[in-house]
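User: Can you model how adenosine-5-diphosphoribose sits in this protein?
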Amino acid sequence: MPKIVILTGAGISAESGLGTFRDVDGLWTRYDLNDVATPEGFARNPALVHDFYNARRDNCRGAAPNAAHAALARLETGLASGEVLVVTQNIDDLHERAGSRAVWHMHGELACALCAACGARWDAPAATRPEDPCPACGAPTTRPDVVWFGEMPYLMDEIFEALTDCDLFVSIGTSGEVYPAAGFVRVASDAGAETLELNLEASANVLDFDQQRQGKATDIVPAWVAEVLGG
Ligand code: APR
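Assistant: Here's the modeled complex, given as structure tokens:
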């Protein structure tokens, strides 16, 4: 079981040029999330939803991991095997490209496509379309492998187990507005873990944390990792 569980959100990828959701000019100020991030929106206009995530995938391919992603990869290599787990709400692959190995994508991944009929997942091509046939069952029911509002995030049982067993829970670059992720701090804290928030500004649930540090992820995450590895 990991000793340190790290929850990441869009803020850790902001300095890589990927937009956040709720900041000024965030994605949800420019798009209606009901159109592109709900099963109902997908049923209404699947092509629009594929176009939206194809554009996200394109942005992601053009982005590089930043110093915060790199620091978390250093933390994992610097501690004993299995001691660090990153649970990310992000659908980009910047943690993996920075070198982190223990990464769980609770909201899915741009890198994968999902069959709405049989649940098969496969590596997504650069662009997906609703009529693409599923490689497993052949149905023309391809959707992005992204967890939308109203759907159950991935790996919830495993995540809760890790949260209740860890010594330290750290939340990085997330607004604390979206559950269940926003509730992880309380789960970890109630089970006895220390809790730390690293974010540009105080999140909606900052008061649930024992400690908080404010600043850009590329400054405060490497500084915190250096303390942990040096201490
Ligand atoms: N460094 C650190 N934090 C930053 C930076 C930065 N450079 N830039 C922005 N932030 C912070 C913001 O202050 C904000 O608190 O990152 C947070 C981003 O919050 P959101 O845009 O709400 O993103 P997130 O918390 O990941 O959203 C959760 O909502 O719709 C969705 O499914 C989507 O996974 C996403 C979920």
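A couple of observations from the model: The pocket of adenosine-5-diphosphoribose is lined by residues 9-11, 14-15, 20-23, 26, 37, 89, 107, 173-175, 177-178, 199-201, 203, 216-217 (CB under 6 Å). The radius of gyration is 18 Å.
User: Helpful, thanks.
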